Amino acid sequence: PICINGLAIELMPVIPAADVDGDGDDDTGAMAIWASDFIASPMTDCTGEVKYSINRVGEEVDADQTGLTLTCDDDASLLVEIWAWDGLGNGDFCETYVLVQDNNVSCADSEAASIAGFIETEEAAPVENVMVELSGNQFQTMQTKFDGHYLFEGMETGFDYTITPEHDIFPLNGVTTFDLILISKHVLGIQPVDSPYKRIAADINRDGRITVMDAVALRKLILNIDLKFKSNTSWRFIPADYVFPNPENPWQEEFPELINVNNLQTSLADEDFIAVKIGDLNLSAKANALQAEQRNLKGSFLLQVADRELAAGTSYRIDFRAADIRKIQGYQLTLKLDPEMASVTDIQYGLATAEHFGLRYLKDGLIANSWSRPGVEIDADHEDSVLFSLEIRARADVRLSEILGVSSRVTAAEAYDLQDGLMDVGIEFNSGTLASVAVELYQNVPNPFREVTNIGFYLPEGGEATLSIHDADGRVIKLIRGTFAPGNNQLQLKRADLGKSGVLYYTLTTGTYTATKKMILIE
After folding, report:
1. Which of 130, 144, 160, 354 could in theory staple to 167 by disulfide, Cβ–Cβ 3.0 to 4.6 A?
2. Domain C-terminal end among 436, 462, 496
3. Distance of alpha carbon 227 from alpha carbon 1, whole angstroms
4. Number of domains within the chain
5. What pLDDT is recorded for position 67?
């Protein structure tokens, strides 16, 4: 079935309180929902009429359960499964969610109040996994769910409280060389950044202004020279009702990054924040697990390299040229040279200079490269100039095109045309073969780990993929299937998902690709 992507329902008062959902407890607020409410497109089947059922995620599936009664016991953001059944009892399901709202305060304790709100980007994308802290007369913490909602309950009235969000992970989320180009255009006066939130995102070093130093700091992050923002956090949060006195200078006065509630008297449901991903000026950061990555490629930007046979023990200079360099604003990529077949002994710079390279993983045969030229014209005499050259030493007799390629392992491979369009990146060898980006499975981070680890992988095109976790005996512990966006994807695993410590293995499978890596869960 095809589900509607979420519905909101409002609990209605139950007067007098009664057990409306059959769990043995009296309910003060309730509302019924039906499986048919979530069907975006009705289905037909040759075996007879299709019927629908609904259940909470994790509950036993019952084909005859056509509706649910939601009460104050349900989470504010509730995941549900919608099943479609044919006449032979065959079924399939889609997953969606319900926002359970209590605007009538049916669930409120007469002696306590609650504070709730949403955390979203300026384009209203909910931000997931934000750690929200309540301090004051009471202390609580919670993480936002996929809808960006937070809720603190059971708070005594008559006291002061403070709400403070924090989210300082995955600094490269949404950050590319295109954001660096936008910062440079702003600094040069070519194209000013168009919102106060984006200006805050461009202030990489958090000094209250946008300068060339912000571009320098961002490039170091893109190239993995720096692994996090040195003077900033990954996200900042501004109360949604805050009005900047001067939107073109959001630092004119110190803007708040928390919400103070003085003398709480009643429940508050709209204490919202605008989330700002630092370094992300084109709002490409993935804010939640339900958000699809938009990646519409408009052609390819190719680096030209002369292919040749390499002899073991011999050194070579490999020139990288780009015939279409005048047609792009910039590009980024990871060069991948098989470290068992050859090693890089030096880099000679041309149009791309030392600041455009990250060499943290050079011993693994990986070189990060980020180049851009806002405001700088390249004349026709230089369009076929050497971008850069690698001096390599062969360790085996092998053909260059068999061991050199483009990857997204460190820095994702992409380029940007003069109309801000996104392009693929590859290497064109003089033999006509093309070394392009392929599916890649990355090592989990951190590894070893105790509580949580992240597994990343790259898909050149969006599609279905399966990640399986298994032990040394081949027993499958967890299976994750899904449809993933093109580009870099990331899945998070928790200790509770795995059950036991020791050496585990994870395997990524697509239609044409299978790879396995090892990880270690420690006590």
Report:
1. 130
2. 436
3. 42
4. 4
5. 94
